[in-house]
Amino acid sequence: MKMTVEVDCTPEEARRFLGLPDVAPIHAAMLERMQAQVVEMTASPEAMLAAWTRMAQPNWMADAMGALFKAATRPSTESKP
What pLDDT, on a 0 to 100 scale, did the predictor assign at position 69? Predict the structure, then answer.
């Protein structure tokens, strides 16, 4: 049986329904800080990225994709009826 459910809601309504935290204040604070650093240009772009997020690591995307593919290709231990 295949069933399709369509939900018409805003992202805010979906976030609340799923119980996800409201990160808007954190996002606004980070944007202000980033804008201030860009205006001041006290650091190189690479240094600013490293300070802002861990995703500034050189191979973060390759590492994430490798872990995803490794998990997806792992043989299942479940027995099928």
Answer: 78
Write the CA distances from 25 to 21, 22, 28, 29, 30, integer angstroms. 11, 8, 5, 6, 9
- Choose between 44 and 9: higher pLDDT: 9
Exposure string for 7-21, b = 16+ CB within 10 A, e = fewer: eeeeeeeeeeeeeee
Reading phi first (left if > 0) and then psi (alpha if -120 to 50, else beta), residue 41 is in: left
- Judge residue 50's burial from the number of C-beta atoms within 10 Å of its C-beta, 0-12 exposed, 13-18 middle, 19 or more buried: middle
Give yes or no for a contact between 23 and 31, defined as CB atoms under 8 angstroms apart.
no
**pLDDT of 8 higher than 90:** yes
